[in-house]
Write a structure and sequence with these properties.
- The chain is of the alpha/beta class.
- 28% of the residues lie in helices and 14% in strands.
- It has ten helices and twelve strands.
- It has helices at residues 8-11, 47-50, 54-63, 79-88, 117-126, 168-184, 189-196, 275-279, 288-302, 320-328, and strands at 37-43, 69-75, 106-110, 142-146, 162-164, 202-203, 208-209, 223-224, 259-262, 264-265, 284-285, 307-310.
- The strands form four sheets. It has a six-stranded mixed β-sheet with strand order 2-1-3-4-5-6, sandwiched between helices.
- Strand 3, helix 5 and strand 4 (142-146) form a beta-alpha-beta unit.
- Helix 3 (54-63) packs parallel to helix 6 (168-184), helix 6 runs antiparallel to helix 7 (189-196) and helix 9 (288-302) packs parallel to helix 10 (320-328).
- The radius of gyration is 20 Å and the shape is globular.
- The chain starts with 7 loop residues before the first helix and ends with a helix.
- The mean pLDDT is 91.
């Protein structure tokens, strides 16, 4: 079926139209003929917020390193653009190839906080993908969730085909390889999900039945065809871990308009109120020399003039003073 598209003249009617164009410095466009697996990284918030998220950039860079895989992006449009899309009957498309979301092998949502849940429904609705997992057709893309909210996914489980629990760099490559093998074998949707559920860290809600207590608490699945509990995947070390040296430079000013470099993951303090301090255990550090190399290449590749050292508690980084001295130069 052919759908209408928003042309550039119509984009002049909405605020900050450059965020819908794609083609940013650092974005990846591949030859369609060489691509065997297509995925769309969906951030359930606006472009200016999503482009500030370093984990999103890490996965985009990592997935696109494989020549036959193509990871593209989509964000929640601002209200004026959403209105225009609905009035014109035009579906939401990816930024890189302007591909319909229903044409991808999987659409992966980065679930950072509960308040972005309405953004998931907006993207699915505008992308012409049924909300509920049970209503999707055989050719519909798999809807995948990852990030902090994937550690407690049950309230949103009906919308997703699978959740990836833990560090994305450790899990997503194995997930893709398994899915590509299933695709080559021509396995139907249910068999693909059953095969993916065998991967450590992958939770497929449709394979389990859960109960809700009188207090509204979700119980551990009492009937499941996959192994429980789900074990999170942990990246053993940040040394030589993938990190984009040429991150995408946004077309408009993002919330964090600077170069962000992850120096440490996890935290040693163990504050009881801190969710992230527990989800991202154990503490792992990137060496000062590797950070210096990333900063040098990224500054040349983006033109940024400010650097943000990213972690839960950068002051606890073991070599913080020598690192600051090097970066200052």
């Amino acid at each position: 079926m052919t759908y209408p598209q928003i042309d550039q003249n119509e984009l002049l009617q909405v605020s900050r139209p450059a965020q819908y164009l794609g083609g940013e410095l650092g974005s990846v466009v591949k030859d369609e003929r060489s691509v065997e697996l297509r995925m769309c990284l969906a951030f359930p918030d606006t472009y200016e917020v999503g482009m500030s998220h370093t984990g999103y950039q890490i996965l985009y860079d990592l997935l696109n390193r494989t020549p036959s895989w193509w990871a593209e992006r989509v964000y929640v449009p601002l209200p004026d653009m959403e209105k225009l899309l609905r009035e014109r009957g035009a579906p939401l498309r990816s930024l890189e190839s302007k591909r319909l979301l229903e044409e991808f092998d999987w659409v992966g949502f980065s679930l950072q906080y509960e308040l972005c849940m309405s953004g998931i429904l907006t993207i699915l609705d505008l992308g012409r993908i049924p909300f509920l997992q049970r209503d999707r057709e055989e050719q519909s893309p798999l809807i995948i969730g990852g990030g902090p909210v994937a550690y407690h996914p049950e309230p949103f489980a009906d919308f997703f085909d699978a959740f990836l629990v833990g560090d994305g760099e450790e899990l997503v490559l194995e997930f893709n390889e398994q899915l590509l093998e299933a695709k080559r074998r021509g396995l139907p949707r249910e068999e693909r999900l059953a095969l993916l559920s065998e991967i450590t860290g992958v939770y497929v809600p449709s394979l389990s039945k859960t109960a809700v207590t009188g207090t509204g608490r979700f119980e551990v699945p009492f009937e499941s065809s996959q192994k429980f509990p789900i074990e999170r995947r942990v990246l053993a070390t940040l040394e030589e871990a993938p990190f984009p040296e040429a991150p995408i430079l946004p077309n408009i000013q993002a919330v964090h308009d600077r170069l962000s470099v992850e120096v440490m993951r996890g935290c040693v303090r163990g504050c009881r109120f801190c969710q992230a301090g527990y989800l991202y255990r154990p503490q792992r550090e990137r060496s000062p020399e590797q950070i210096r190399k990333i900063v040098e290449k990224s500054l040349r590749g983006t033109g940024h003039e400010e650097i943000s050292l990213l972690s839960l508690s950068t002051a606890d980084y073991c070599s913080i003073l020598p690192l600051l001295s090097v970066l200052k130069e």
